Amino acid sequence: MTEVMHHVPRKPDKSKPWCPNCKLHTGYHRKSPDSEFYTCEICEGKTWRPTLPIPLLIVSLLLILFMFFMGYYAVFRLKDLRGVIMFPFGLFAGRGLYQNYASNAKHWRSFHKWAKKNR
Ligand SMILES: [Zn+2]
User: Fold this and answer.
1) Which residues contact 60 (CB under 8 A, 6 or more apart)?
2) Number of structural domains the chain divides into
3) Which of 58, 14, 18 is nearest to 40 (CA)?
C-alpha cells in the first residue's frame, strides 16, 4: 500500500505557500511561468511561502546604498553628471524594495500568528 500525502490546509508549514487573505495553505497555481507569486485557488489573490523578512531588508538596504554610492562616485569623483540619475533611480528602487519588504514582513507576522493558533 502506498501512502498518499494529503494537503492539509490548516497545518502550518513554512515550505508551502500561505494565503494571507484566506489565512490557510490553500491550493495554488502559477499564473505564468515567470511569475514570482502563486495565485490562491480560493480568493485568486497572491499567495507565497512565508519568508523571513530580515535578510530581504539587508539585501535591499545594501542595494540602495550601492546605487547611491555609484551616483556619488560618478558625480563627485569622476565628475560625470550622468551619475545623478542614480539618485532618483535609487529612490525608486528603494520604494519598490520597501513595499516588497513591508508586504513580506506583514505576511510573515500574520502567518506566525496563525501558526501559533493552529499548532
Ligand atoms: Zn486566498
Assistant:
1) 94, 97, 98, 100, 101
2) 2
3) 18
75 occurs within a structural domain: yes
CA 82–ligand 1 middle distance (angstroms): 45
Say how many Å lie between the CA of residue 104 and the centre of ligand 1: 16
Task: Enter the pTM of the model.
Answer: 0.79
Neighbours of 50 (CB within 10 A): 22
Are 55 and 45 contained in the same domain? no
User: How remote is the CA of residue 29 from the centroid of ligand 1, in Å?
Assistant: 11
C-alpha separations of 99 from 15, 29, 44, 81 in Å: 23, 23, 21, 29
Output the pLDDT for position 8: 79
